[in-house]
Structures are given as structure tokens and as C-alpha cells.
């Protein structure tokens, strides 16, 4: 400690509220792209209220899956990648997160808020081209936080994530039991409830 009246004055702490990181808005979700069991590319952080996730570059911007490279690709992955096309529009709305299928083939969706309360079976919804679905319900998610975790035979359970497969379904009604058997799929990791 310095004696009173010294030239040094009080210790000042920098104001962290003015740092560049403090003014930058936080991302509301991150998107991971997978081919079977392999994640391709880095996590894509989403800051805007809506993001396009597509294969070919459209007019505008978003997450272009066609630009992600992988050394070895199976024929089933190549065929499915060619079906992604305009892909999906993912948007954060006041009531939850919505996915609009902009492609020419169905997408398949699984989310903790789509499952039946207390249900034991995995629920995978098929969304035809031109249709949308609320893939994550904020209010319902708050209620689920207090319930028991379901048995997740295909890996860790995350109550704040959504899985979307392009063109291929999975689950009890399909030959592919787990999403990791699907050629091309997305994992949407929601940041707002973490």
C-alpha cells in the first residue's frame, strides 16, 4: 500500500464494459455439419435472427455446405449432398426456432421439444419441401429442464440441441436407427438456454 499523499494515486481497474467483446452480440446457436459419424468443418456460429444453410451458393449469404472439403466421401454421401440444394432457413422467433425446408427433398428433424412428454420412443418428423416446423419450443424446453433425461442409445443427450438430416430419415421407422447412419446431417446447438 502506498502512503496517503503519494504521487501514485488510487489503483484503477480498466472498464471492461467498453471492451470490444462486451459490445459484440452473442451467437444464439452454433451449427455442426456431419457426414455419418464425421464432423466436417468447424462449428458455424449464428448471430443473425435467421441463417440459410445450403449446398450451392445462392443469392445472399449463410452456411455453404458445398465449400466444406473432406478427403474421402462415400457414394451415399455424394448422392445425398447433391440433394441438399437450397437447404433450410433456420430462424429464431419469439416462440422458438423454426426450420423452413427450401430444398426439393424432405428433411427429417429430431428435437427434445418434439418428443412426447415422458415418451420412450425417439420422434423424428418428416418435413416436405416448402414446409416449415418449429424445431425447438422455448416454453416447452423450460418445462423439460426439470424432467428426467430420456434414454439416448445413440450418444449423449443434449436438451438444447436439434438434429436435422437431409433427404434420409432415421429412428424406429427407418432402416437407419441412429442419426450417425445418415449421410448428411446438421446438429444445431442452441446457446440461449446454456
Principal-axes geometry comes out as: globular
Task: Note the quaternary state here.
Answer: single chain
| Name of the CATH class | Mainly Beta
CATH A-level architecture: Sandwich
The CATH topology assignment is Tumour Suppressor Smad4
Q: What is the H/E order?
A: HEEEEHEEEEEHEE
Which structural category fits the helices and strands? mainly beta
Keywords: Transcription, Transcription regulation, Ubl conjugation
GO molecular function: I-SMAD binding; transcription regulator inhibitor activity
InterPro entries: Dwarfin, SMAD-like_dom_sf, SMAD_dom_Dwarfin-type, SMAD_FHA_dom_sf
Region (Disordered): 1-24
Please, could you describe this protein's structure?
- The protein has 194 residues and is mainly β.
- The chain has one domain (29-146, 158-190): Tumour Suppressor Smad4 (Sandwich), CATH 2.60.200.10.
- The chain is 9% helix and 31% strand.
- The chain has helices spanning 20-23, 75-81, 138-144; strands at residues 29-35, 38-46, 50-54, 63-64, 88-93, 96-101, 107-110, 125-127, 132-137, 161-166, 185-190.
- The strands form 2 sheets. The protein has a 6-stranded antiparallel β-sheet with strand order 2-1-11-10-7-8.
- The chain is globular, with a radius of gyration of 21 Å.
- InterPro entries: Dwarfin (IPR013790), SMAD-like_dom_sf (IPR017855), SMAD_dom_Dwarfin-type (IPR001132), SMAD_FHA_dom_sf (IPR008984).
- One of its GO terms (molecular function) is transcription regulator inhibitor activity.
- Residues 28-194 form the MH2 domain.
Amino acid at each position: 500500500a502506498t502512503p496517503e499523499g503519494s504521487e501514485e494515486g488510487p489503483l484503477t481497474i480498466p472498464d471492461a464494459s467498453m471492451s470490444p467483446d462486451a459490445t459484440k452480440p452473442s451467437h444464439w446457436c452454433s451449427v455442426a455439419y456431419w457426414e455419418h459419424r464425421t464432423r466436417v468443418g468447424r462449428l458455424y456460429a449464428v448471430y443473425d435472427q435467421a441463417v440459410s444453410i445450403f449446398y450451392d451458393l445462392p443469392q445472399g449469404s449463410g452456411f455453404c455446405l458445398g465449400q466444406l472439403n473432406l478427403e474421402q466421401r462415400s457414394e451415399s454421401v455424394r448422392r445425398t449432398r447433391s440433394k441438399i440444394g437450397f437447404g433450410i432457413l433456420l430462424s429464431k422467433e419469439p416462440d422458438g426456432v423454426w426450420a423452413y425446408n427450401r430444398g426439393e427433398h424432405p428433411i427429417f428433424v429430431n428435437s427434445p421439444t418434439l418428443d412426447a412428454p415422458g415418451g420412450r420412443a425417439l420422434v423424428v418428423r418428416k418435413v416436405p419441401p416448402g414446409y416449415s416446423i418449429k424445431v425447438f419450443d422455448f416454453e416447452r424446453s423450460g418445462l423439460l429442464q426439470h424432467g428426467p433425461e430420456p434414454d439416448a442409445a445413440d450418444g449423449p443427450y443434449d436438451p438444447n440441441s436439434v438434429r436435422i438430416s437431409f433427404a434420409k430419415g432415421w429412428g424406429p421407422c427407418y432402416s437407419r436407427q441412429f442419426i450417425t447412419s445418415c449421410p448428411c446431417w446438421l446438429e444445431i446447438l442452441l446457446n440461449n438456454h446454456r
